[in-house]
Amino acid sequence: METLLQQIVNGLVVGSVYALVALGYTMVYGILGLINFAHGEVVMIGALTALQTLLILMGVAPDMAPLLKLAIAVLVAMPVCMILGFLMERLAYRRLRNAPRLAPLITAIGMSFLLQTLAMIIWGRNYHTFPQLISTTPMQPIPGVFVTPVQVAIVIVSALVMAGLILLVTKTRLGRAMRATAENHRVASLMGVDTNAIIGLTFIIGAGLAAVAGVMFASNYGIAHYAMGFMPGLKAFTAAVLGGIGNLGGAMLGGIVLGLVEAVGAGYIETMTFGFLNSSYQDIFAFVILGIVLIFRPTGLLGERVSDRA
Amino acid sequence: MNELIEAVPFLGKRNPRLAKWLIIILALVAPLIAAYFGRSWMRILDFALLYMMLALGLNLVVGFAGLLDLGYIAFYAVGAYTWAFLASPHFGVHMPFWIVLPLGAAFAALAGIILGFPVLRLRGDYLAIVTLGFGEIVRIFMNNLNHPVNITNGPQGINALDSLNLFGWNLAQSLSFGDFKIHYLYLYYYFFLLCVIGSIVFIKRLQISRVGRAWAAMRDDELAAKAIGINVRNMKLLAFSLGATFGGVAGGLFGSFQGFVSPESFSLMESIAVLTMVVFGGMGNIAGAIVGALALTALPEILRNIALPVQEALFGTVILDPEVLRMLLLSLAMILMMLLRPAGLVPAHARYSRPELLKGGA
Known about the structure:
By secondary structure, chain A is mainly alpha-helical.
């Protein structure tokens, strides 16, 4: 029972990070019908930029309050990622908006590997320790179940960010313009929406969320390196599909569900398969879920979009 | 062949006959030229031929049938591991190549069908992600199937694979006639060359056959293809399994040539590398796959030899190591090619969608 509760806690934490990343995928897909493969790499760039900022801050002002340092790091990482997201859209994807569908996808894959390589050049191949600025001393709200303050912070912050995004999309003029663009570019632009600006802005918002998610990932695991974004990126995409791609609420739900399935699955896979498989197979869950969802319910849990767009 | 001839710069369109002979002679003497620069270049040539087979196979899936497969390297892995299981001291089994190679191809084809069935309904980008997942699942299994029963020997991989033995003639041993010695890398080169030529002939015939035309129709418009009576399901499965077969054969040859297999050789990056070759050369085009494979195997190596001394001279240290250079080159090739010249270096002819022009092919 403790294992189950513990894995549920872990799943919720990881799941809320997946949800943040999944929002970026789902917003871009909703508007452009493009899987922005490089989104996971934006997460990585966010984490590494934050790490770099922290290292500089520790050198310059070692006495600064840890939380303030972390806040500054996030505030540096977000604009960096936003610029990156904007540039990706402006320089690569925009030109391919009317190209055959494989072209933007292949470009996105290339972009993903390009960003990984650039990160490898800047930060090297090694794993970097990410400073733990929020306490990692576990608390035991229920005996046998450990929760660290970092984990609590991750869940709270991602809930706040997601709430903010929902307000933005549903209550503001900008959000209405975004929804209109997602519905139909042409008509939206006829109604006076600057669709190019909206698409650029979607990439910027997604990248900002990814930066926050990157810092969370790095704080949760205590490490950062150039390839850290790829797997979470794929999983977040899976989460977006699971929830129904193009649907914001779906992305959040999908992220949490995926996190839970993965954590609980990894906790029990050894018992379930009589010791044949162990937790090193954890990454398989996401792919299996992705396959199952796409085959049996391509619209996802909450979505109405069909996957039948070639 | 015609496309390849036309791809020769300057000469191709003006004097096709000369260009043809140029290609044939180049293919034959390439290892001699490479040997002039050193053994490592011969090895690179051999690998270039393996990559050509992979690119040809992937081109069949991506270029002909329009199914973007990001897990293609898994089939290469199936072929290589089949060789490792059936022709190495790992299980103590040493079967001859004419059993292992077809078996590897068959297993790969089977894997292709296993992948193909569930993804029949998926198209475009979703298909890409699911195939990527398939490739990763295969790699995760290769990495972890050393416990509780040791099957793949985990991340360490399997050593001392049998070399290619053509009915008693071991390709891994240099031939010698008295004082005259032929290094084994030549033998592998010409054997791989034969395999590549065989693949080209096969794929060429396939492309202009009923199946090839059905693929083209399906790629261009699946609904219309269905409407004119093409069995889209079978055609997709056929594309996956045939493409996989090439991967399986290339994988077996890779295992025998390298003498060592480990999951590291079958990472996602390799799938992407092969895809880049296809995209760079020109999708849906045999010559494209060949040019792409050759260019993207040779370029990183040339860069390695040029860039490293230059960096040392300029900065005193190596800033961009060869692996980074290769990734940089591949990713830039992919992005820039899509932005600037989406049809690739050697664009495919539209002729294969027009039956009256088919007669002049081959």
